[in-house]
Specification:
Elements lengths: L1 E7 L4 E7 L2 E7 L5 E8 L5 H15 L4 E8 L6 H6 L7 E8 L2 E8 L5 E8 L5 H17 L8 E11 L2 E10 L6 E4 L4 E8 L6 E7 L3 E7 L5 E5 L3 E8 L5 E6 L7 E6 L2 E4 L7 E7 L4 E6 L7 E6 L4 E4 L6 E7 L4 E8 L2 E8 L4 E4 L6 E7 L5 E7 L9
Parallel strand pairs: 4-5, 4-6, 14-16
Antiparallel strand pairs: 1-29, 2-3, 6-7, 7-8, 9-10, 10-11, 12-13, 13-14, 14-15, 16-17, 17-18, 18-19, 20-21, 21-22, 22-23, 24-25, 25-26, 26-27, 28-29
Helix pairs in contact: 1-3
Length: 394
């Protein structure tokens, strides 16, 4: 059985509060669970308000750093005395949440002085209450922990579908950051695999590979769920990785002599990267677009992970022995996560570019592969294959 699993890389937490123009910072070397109270108007019972409060609680509780409770009140956020009284009940943070005329209002206060930390409104479009709540949770997370929130992040993955003519179909799904609200965005009866996000600020799109009779073509589905062909050369067209500005991508093509090579596509120009004989695949762009990480099997006959300096045109080996695949880089942490074969099982490792050190993340039975970072760098999502079903883990 194959499942999606999340692993947390949190090692410390930082709470930042703003009171009377003074910034107070509380730090700890071990995770600190802070108590947060989300309050809603006792006089209303609108569906929108309930969904806003429910989603805020779910999002803010996800990492375990915040212990979130929900209650109804007749008080309002202007009552500083009431806000401060909640400190005696152990709450450091109070969130007032309400919805009026399709506008979600979120007010965040610390309970030491009752001062406001965040006061923001969100317009709800097309009854997308949960989406508004995710945006609010992002802002709350940023205000409290001085880290970007990831609650609006979407997960894309390939899932087994029906068996057609003896072949198990695979379809592309998109879900919320925690795997909830899954939606099939490519429902065709084919074999669609290896989705990759291209985040365009104006039009987020998703690339994937469609295995057809003559080749494996690279496809694109946009935010309107319109599907088009991105690359259709002979052989494999797979696994695009994108540069920060979004104006270029690098991806795998196997048209040349049957070997898989990496090509950069920019401004209608396609150029092969000369990285040596053998197969080059699974590219990942890092170091703000200056470095390309990839797999290459030309040195020892099985894949190892390399880094290629795009300016100096020099490569260096990253992995230290063994079968290593599926690298993914996070610019916030300046770390690379990848899968490595350990006694017949794929385990996840993290390589730190600053210290040049490797750390094993996962252990035990089951193959862990295809890792992907959360934008903040605190979580790694990966595919977990085993005969035993497992629950979502953090």
């Amino acid at each position: 059985m194959k499942k999606l699993v999340v692993i947390s890389l949190l090692c410390c937490s930082v709470l930042q509060l703003f009171a009377q123009q003074k910034k107070m910072v509380i730090t700890s070397q071990t995770p600190v669970q802070m108590k947060v109270l989300v309050l809603c108007d006792k006089k209303t019972s609108r569906k929108a308000q309930k969904e806003l409060v429910h989603t805020l609680k779910k999002d803010l509780s996800f990492s375990g750093q915040l212990k979130v409770a929900v209650a109804a009140t007749k008080k309002n956020s202007d009552d500083a005395k009431y806000v401060c009284s909640l400190s005696s009940r152990g709450y450091q943070i109070v969130v007032f949440a309400d919805v009026v005329d399709n506008v979600a209002m979120v007010r965040l206060h610390e309970t030491v002085t009752g001062s406001s930390v965040l006061d923001k409104q969100y317009v709800i479009k097309n009854d997308a209450f949960a989406s508004c709540a995710h945006m609010a949770a992002n802002d709350i997370w940023q205000a409290l922990l001085n880290q970007p929130g990831w609650f609006t992040t979407k997960i894309a993955y390939s899932q087994d579908g029906n068996v057609v003519n003896g072949t198990c179909t695979k379809q592309i799904y998109v879900a919320d950051y925690d795997g909830s609200n899954a939606q099939c965005v490519v429902p065709k009866d084919g074999v669609c695999i290896a989705p990759r996000w291209h985040i365009d600020p104006n039009n987020a799109s998703l690339f994937y590979s469609d295995c057809v009779e003559k080749n494996v073509r690279l496809m694109l589905v946009d935010s309107s769920l319109e599907v088009s062909t991105a690359s259709n050369f002979t052989g494999m067209n797979m696994l695009p990785a994108f540069f920060p500005r979004g104006d270029a991508m690098v991806y795998c093509l196997s048209a040349a002599q049957g070997e898989c090579k990496l090509y950069v596509y920019k401004k209608d120009n396609l150029k092969q990267l000369k990285l040596g004989k053998g197969n080059c695949f699974s590219p990942a762009v890092g170091n703000e677009g200056k470095t390309l990480y990839y797999c290459w099997d030309g040195r020892v006959g099985y894949p190892e992970i390399y880094a290629y300096d795009l300016k100096k045109r020099k490569k260096r080996r990253i992995s230290q022995g063994g079968y290593c695949v599926t690298p993914a880089y996070n610019d916030v942490k300046q770390q690379l996560v990848y899968a490595k074969g350990m006694k017949g099982t794929l385990q996840l490792f993290v390589y730190d570019e600053k210290t040049k050190s490797h750390t094993q993340l996962t252990f035990g039975a089951g193959n862990k592969q295809e890792p992907s970072w959360s934008p903040c760098g605190n979580y790694v999502l990966f595919s977990y294959s085993t005969k035993v079903a497992v629950a979502l883990r953090c």
